[in-house]
């Protein structure tokens, strides 16, 4: 492997690992805030128990997300310094906003929420929960604005030094790619949190754990959120796909293994054969006639360009060969391969959709099985299926991002078809001048470190999941015949006792 391949592997490994924590934090923070709102409004102890239990798991996940996310910032300087110099005038603005306006707000209100149980009023404490949860969404928005600029550069001109220069932060923050990606990512985060609730709550119901109303309410909330999230993902995904056909037609052609232009174009459900070949000679697909034309342009008769025709267009616009530059290493002066890895884009696109659908179906099944106060099935298949289903939206999110990022290759900054000429960059030109040994060492160390962190997180989550409500709530005091606490003469009520139990 060369420096470019190793750098891409490192960024891929660390980013996919980090993104396992991100959607769970976003989705679960909103759901925990909703649980606490239900408690404040109704006074029902069930909702307080839900807030405490799921809030504990949220904190573990958030802590791991912070630790793994720090590495992402440093990698731009470590392995992608040429990229950082090229996009720094633009890319730095949304990242700075994320750090200052979002992360600081997020951390501040999370701290107040953790330590404010016995120090703040109920409503002030609840406001902290909502401020934290909304700040996680704001943080996600700024990150997506930065990523969307890489997918579809706007709001810039080319400076005299040949680098993009920011002229409108408003255009960057209102990029139509960002506006399409943000709701899609948020629905994906809710799908992850929903499956997390359903899987763990169903396991507790199967074990006949104490606090059964807590687990039933968690299953109901998670299942409905998961079903609604899948519908939201389908709608926002359709809108995103139509934008991609306009902005990155090669990515969408690769997602369909559409090697030749078709009018109308059929949608491939499943392919048999070697989809890695750009001529698709050995590929046989099960297709839905004209559906791809509708997904691309909202009609059943329009033309959709295939990989081979798009390669010709890209060669005419961006060149047939890489520049002769020693920094490009073995790629210097070599032909440019404009076709993404077809097996990754084709199957990644389908696995993204498939895992999302499975997650929603399992949630609906759980809702049906425990409806109306019914006991959870006693067979071992039930908890195993529910716990395994937790992984499905995580996998769907991961495959979606792998498709999104690898589908724009060979560009790290994809060209805007209607934007300023010159605002694009090949991935091969973005890498730092490191040695193979240096990058291999960092890949190995980070992979091993992240493996250790994964063990720590699973251990902590397993410990507190097994502890159930009893691990986060004070015991309910027994009552005397007159309804008063048997061992207390003070005037504080149960809510005050519960509030005093801090994390």
Automatic annotation (TrEMBL):
Main location: membrane
GO molecular function, one term: metal ion binding
Membrane-spanning ranges: 20-41, 53-71, 91-115, 127-146, 185-206, 218-235, 347-370, 382-403, 439-461
Region (Disordered): 476-496
GO BP, sorted A to Z: aerobic electron transport chain
Keyword RNA-binding: no
GO cellular component: cytochrome complex; plasma membrane
Location in the cell: Cell membrane
Name this protein carries in UniProt: Cytochrome ubiquinol oxidase subunit I
Top-level taxonomy: Bacteria, Bacillati, Actinomycetota, Actinomycetes, Pseudonocardiales
């Amino acid at each position: 492997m060369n420096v470019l391949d190793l750098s891409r592997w490192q960024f891929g490994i660390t980013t996919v690992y980090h993104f396992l924590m991100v959607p769970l934090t976003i989705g679960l923070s909103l759901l925990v805030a909703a649980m606490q709102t239900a408690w404040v409004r109704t006074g029902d102890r069930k909702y307080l128990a839900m807030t405490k239990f799921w809030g504990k798991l949220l904190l573990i996940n958030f802590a791991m997300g912070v630790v793994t996310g720090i590495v992402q910032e440093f990698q731009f300087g470590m392995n992608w310094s040429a990229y950082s110099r090229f996009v720094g005038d633009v890319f730095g603005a949304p990242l700075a906003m994320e750090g200052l306006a979002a992360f600081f707000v997020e951390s501040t209100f999370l701290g107040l929420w953790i330590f404010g149980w016995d120090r703040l009023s109920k409503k002030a404490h609840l406001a902290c929960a909502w401020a934290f949860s909304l700040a996680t969404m704001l943080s996600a928005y700024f990150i997506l604005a930065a990523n969307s600029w890489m997918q579809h550069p706007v709001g810039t001109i080319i400076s005299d030094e040949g680098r993009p220069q920011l002229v409108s932060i408003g255009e960057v923050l209102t990029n139509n790619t960002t506006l399409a990606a943000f709701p899609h990512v948020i629905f994906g985060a809710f799908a992850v949190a929903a499956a997390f609730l359903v899987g763990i709550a169903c396991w507790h119901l199967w074990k006949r754990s104490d606090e059964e109303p807590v687990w039933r309410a968690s299953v109901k909330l998670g299942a409905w959120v998961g079903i609604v999230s899948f519908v939201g993902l389908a709608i926002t995904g359709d809108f995103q796909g139509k934008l991609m056909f306009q902005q990155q037609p090669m990515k969408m052609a690769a997602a369909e293994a559409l090697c030749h232009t078709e009018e109308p174009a059929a949608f491939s459900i499943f392919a048999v054969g070697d989809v890695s070949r750009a001529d698709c000679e050995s590929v046989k697909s099960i297709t839905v006639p004209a559906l791809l034309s509708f997904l691309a342009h909202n009609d059943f008769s329009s033309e959709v360009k295939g990989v081979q025709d798009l390669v010709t267009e890209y060669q005419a616009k961006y060149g047939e060969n890489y520049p002769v530059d020693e920094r490009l290493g073995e790629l210097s002066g070599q032909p440019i391969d404009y076709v993404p890895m077809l097996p990754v884009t084709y199957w990644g696109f389908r696995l993204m959709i498939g895992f999302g659908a499975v997650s929603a179906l399992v949630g609906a099944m759980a809702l049906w099985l425990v409806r109306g106060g019914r006991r959870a099935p006693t067979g071992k298949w039930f908890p195993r299926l529910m716990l395994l289903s937790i992984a499905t939206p995580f996998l769907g999110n991961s495959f979606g991002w792998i498709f999104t990022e690898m589908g724009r290759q060979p560009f790290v900054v994809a060209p805007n078809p209607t934007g300023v000429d010159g605002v694009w960059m090949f991935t091969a030109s973005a890498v730092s001048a490191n040695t193979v040994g240096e990058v291999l060492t960092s890949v190995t160390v980070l992979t091993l470190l992240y493996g250790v962190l994964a063990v720590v997180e699973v251990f902590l989550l397993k410990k507190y999941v097994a502890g159930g409500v009893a691990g986060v709530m004070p015991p309910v005091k027994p009552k005397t015949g007159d309804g008063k606490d048997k061992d207390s003469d003070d005037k504080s009520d149960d809510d005050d006792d519960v509030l005093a139990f801090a994390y």
